[in-house]
Every structure is written in structure tokens, then in C-alpha cells.
Design brief:
The chain is of the alpha/beta class. The protein is about 30% helix and about 10% strand. Helix 1 (about 45-55) packs across helix 10, helix 8 runs parallel beside helix 11 and helix 9 packs parallel to helix 10 (about 315-330).
């Protein structure tokens, strides 16, 4: 394969896919949590990104919601009761009482116990589940939760700075309505927690592009393709140090195109970890902000219901830059190159520009190496059944309901006073709209499940679907 000059063409925002409706989930509390002094994971970066999103005026192009935090019951759709109960009870003050549990649940150095740990997990999980619920109900075409994307968490333990796997919870929500979901991961680390959760099913295809070889978590080699019914439905693209924009594009786009053609997913979950960009504190790739965003733009171009999530990223100013730029891309509005004045303006000195530029580091991914991996991946994909079918029970239409107040044009004008006043200021913490997607057909309506339904039991011929005849009352918030 001959590679073109290593410069990407500018992303074209003038296309029909820019008419898609976008729901954006943000909880102002998320930036209050801290893993501890010296820890590379900084939830503050989500607040920084949100400040840029607001100051660029992107709120005018999307609906902004504060999702209800995930409940224990919701988190236990994937995680064990014992593990979630531990997260809800452990604190820095009583941690000595949980010595055995710390070892059992892998909580310690990389995944420390910090003040508000459980609440932080609930915010992340709630945003991803609520985004999926709105996609299911056709309330939006794209849902964004930059506080999500914590792809290392396992069913019964924390891993890699991740405690609750909001991605798995969001995918389980999508599987209530969608026969096939594809998960795409561009974080520099392998999306092991998500792959493990769906390793034996063809209902979800997982696809991860990541650094492999003496790098956390040490999984994700080319030969890991799934087992049982899930054989060939796990796609791993192991990469070496220094991959740049053009070489990443040259393998990303053919792989995703083949997945769309062979698997025919009806919904997409895209994890946008920012640690694959150049200059990341824990990363070793050389993607620019545009090279990273090109992946988002390409996935968007298929026009499928898409849940967009955050993930890793440990140079805060660059993560905030990329996620802001990608938010603009998703709503069809160009932003930059200058950084507007915002609450964290000093972070972006000395140039105060939006761009994250590549460095001159060596690309250890030769054309021959990438060709060999790509051909193997495409061969594995060709062995999958064409659009595996899933027998689904009919999903009844949701009961008639009044449109949520914040979905009306009048409400959008009055949340911040009139529209002119809204345009003149950054939305205050108390102006975020609580999501109304909680009633019949929403993510907390347990009438959607039969007694004993296990969302993780995906080997059955039928997907869990809303039921008409179960009068069990909805779970209270």
C-alpha cells in the first residue's frame, strides 16, 4: 500500500450529516473529584472542555442535559452487587476496614479510593446510559458524554483508573432496541474491559486501535478475535510508537468501513480517549488534534445513532482542546484557531491556539507492518456472518407523553432569560437541564424487563425488549 504525503486534508463540515441532532451530557459536579495529588487522571479536564464548549457558543447547536446519576441497580446490570456495594461504602476515612476488599477489587495505587468515588462513578455511568436511552427513543442522533469512556473497568474489579464501565452499561442500554452495536476505541490503551464483557457474543463487535507491547494493559493482540458465538467479533489493531495522522487514517478507515459493510451495526459507540494524541503524559502516539478528530468525523459520516464518549488523556489542555473541537465537528460548527477567553484561559499559553500539533517523533509503524495487520484484520472480518440476525420481539411504541419542556424552542430561550441574554454568557451550573428521559420507555422504567431478565445474558435468541403486559411500577429516581 502506498501512503500519501503525511498531511490530512481539512475536515469538511459542509455535508448533510451535520444536520444530526446532538444531545450533550454534562454534570457540573464532575470536576470536583480528584484521584489524589500526583495522580495522572484529572476529572478537571472535563470541566475545562465544557468551559471551552460553552465559550465557543456550541450550546446553541445542541441540547445540554444533566443526566440522573446511575443507581446501584443500573450499575449491577454489569458489575457484581458485591463490588458496587464496596464502592458505595468505602471512603478514605474507613479504607482500613476494607483491607481484603482492596486486594479483591484491585483498588489501591492506580485506582485509589478518593472522596466522592461512588458519586463520580454514578455521574459517568448515568451520562452514558442516558445518552443511549435518548438514542433508543429517537430523541437525538448523537449523544456526547465526555465524562464517560472508562473502558478498563471489569465486572468485579477496578483497573486502569476505571471503576465502573459506563461503556458496557451504555451498550446494554442500546441492546434493548438495537440488534447489533459496534464499539470503536481510539484510546492509546486497549479497550479490554469492554472487549471482555462482549467476548462471547455476536451482538456487539468491539474494535480497538491501541499501542501493543510492554504497555498497559498488555492485552489486545491481533489473534484475540473472540470465542464461541463471538468468534471474529472482537477486532484488535495493535500499533507501535509514533503513529501519525496519515498512517492512522490509512488503517482506521478501511477497518471501520469493512465493519460497517460486513457487520451492518444499527448503533455505534465511539470512545475518544485523548491519550493517543501527541504530547500526552502517558502516551506514545503522534496524532494531531485533527488526526484524532478525523476518526470522529469518519464514524459520524455513516449516519448511525452514535454514542460519543471520552476516556483517557493526561495532558489536560490537549484533551480539552480535542474534545471541544470534536464537539464542534459533531454539531457541524468550525471552532478555533484562537482560544476564546474562558475560566481556564491560562492553561492554553503561550500561543492560546486550539490546535494540538504532532511532534517530530519517529513512526515505528512501517508500511509493511500496517499492511500485514490490516490484511489479517480484514480477513477475520470476512469470516463473520453478513449482518448476523437477532430475533427481536416487537418494541412497542412508548406511551404518549408531553415533550420535555427543554425540547421546546420557547424553553431554550427562557432557560437563560431571553436568547440574547443566553448568548452573552456562559451557562451557569444551575442552568443545565435535568434529563426528562426517565419515564415510560426511559432507562429507569423496569417495565421494560421481564422478571429475571439478565442484560448480560446475550446468547439467547431474543434481545431484552420493552414489554406491554408487565405492570411493575417504574423505579424511583
Amino acid at each position: 500500500m502506498a501512503y500519501p504525503a503525511r498531511v490530512l486534508e481539512p475536515i469538511n463540515l459542509d455535508n448533510p450529516s451535520n444536520k444530526q441532532r446532538v444531545a450533550y451530557f454534562y454534570d457540573s459536579d464532575v470536576g470536583n473529584y480528584a484521584y489524589g495529588a500526583g495522580h495522572p487522571m484529572k476529572p478537571h479536564r472535563i470541566r475545562m472542555a465544557h468551559s471551552l464548549v460553552m465559550n465557543y457558543g456550541l450550546y446553541k447547536k445542541m441540547e445540554i442535559y444533566r443526566a440522573k446519576p446511575a443507581t446501584k441497580q443500573e450499575m449491577c446490570q454489569f458489575h457484581t452487587d458485591e463490588y458496587i456495594d464496596f464502592l458505595s461504602r468505602v471512603t478514605p476515612d474507613n479504607i482500613e476496614l476494607f483491607a481484603k476488599e482492596q486486594v479483591k477489587f484491585n483498588v489501591g495505587d492506580d485506582c485509589p479510593v478518593f472522596d466522592g468515588l461512588y458519586e463520580f462513578c454514578s455521574i459517568s455511568g448515568g451520562g452514558s446510559m442516558e445518552g443511549a436511552a435518548r438514542l433508543n427513543r429517537g430523541k437525538c442522533d448523537i449523544a456526547i458524554n465526555w465524562a464517560g469512556g472508562l473502558h478498563h473497568a471489569k465486572k468485579n474489579e477496578a483497573s486502569g483508573f476505571c471503576y465502573v464501565n459506563d461503556i458496557v452499561l451504555g451498550i446494554l442500554e442500546l441492546l434493548r432496541y438495537h440488534p447489533r452495536v459496534v464499539y470503536i476505541d481510539i484510546d492509546i490503551h486497549h479497550g479490554d474491559g469492554v472487549e471482555e464483557a462482549f467476548y462471547t457474543t455476536d451482538r456487539v463487535m468491539t474494535c480497538s486501535f491501541h499501542k501493543y507491547g510492554e504497555f498497559f494493559p498488555g492485552t489486545g493482540e491481533l489473534r484475540d478475535i473472540g470465542i464461541g458465538k463471538g468468534k471474529n467479533y472482537a477486532v484488535n489493531f495493535p500499533l507501535r510508537d509514533g503513529i501519525d495522522d496519515v498512517t492512522f487514517k490509512s488503517v482506521f478507515q478501511p477497518t471501520v468501513t469493512a465493519i460497517m459493510e460486513w457487520y451492518r451495526p444499527t448503533a455505534v459507540v465511539l470512545q475518544c480517549g485523548g491519550d493517543s494524541m501527541s504530547g500526552d503524559l502517558l502516551g506514545c502516539f503522534n496524532l494531531s488534534m485533527q488526526g484524532h478528530a478525523n476518526c470522529v468525523n469518519f464514524v459520524k459520516s455513516f449516519g448511525l445513532p452514535t454514542l460519543v464518549l471520552g476516556g483517557g488523556g493526561y495532558t489536560m489542555r490537549n484533551v480539552a482542546r480535542a474534545w471541544t473541537y470534536e464537539t464542534g465537528l459533531l454539531v457541524g460548527q468550525a471552532v478555533g484557531p484562537e482560544i476564546p477567553y474562558n475560566d481556564y484561559y491560562e492553561y492554553y499559553g503561550p500561543d492560546y491556539q486550539l490546535e494540538v500539533r504532532p511532534s517530530n517523533m519517529q513512526n515505528a509503524n512501517s508500511d509493511e507492518y500496517l499492511d500485514r495487520i490490516l490484511q489479517s484484520v480484514l480477513e477475520n472480518l470476512s469470516r463473520t456472518k453478513f449482518a448476523p440476525s437477532v430475533q427481536m420481539t416487537d418494541v412497542p411504541r412508548d406511551a404518549p407523553e408531553e415533550e420535555p419542556e427543554e425540547d421546546t424552542e420557547e424553553a431554550k430561550d427562557t432557560r437563560g432569560g431571553n436568547q440574547n441574554a443566553w448568548d452573552e454568557h456562559v451557562q451557569r451550573d444551575d442552568e443545565l437541564s435535568d434529563s426528562e428521559d426517565e419515564g415510560e420507555g426511559g432507562r429507569r422504567d423496569i417495565r421494560n424487563y421481564k422478571d429475571g431478565d439478565d442484560m448480560m445474558d446475550l446468547d439467547d435468541d431474543e434481545t431484552p425488549a420493552p414489554k406491554k403486559d408487565d405492570a411493575t411500577p417504574a423505579v424511583e429516581a
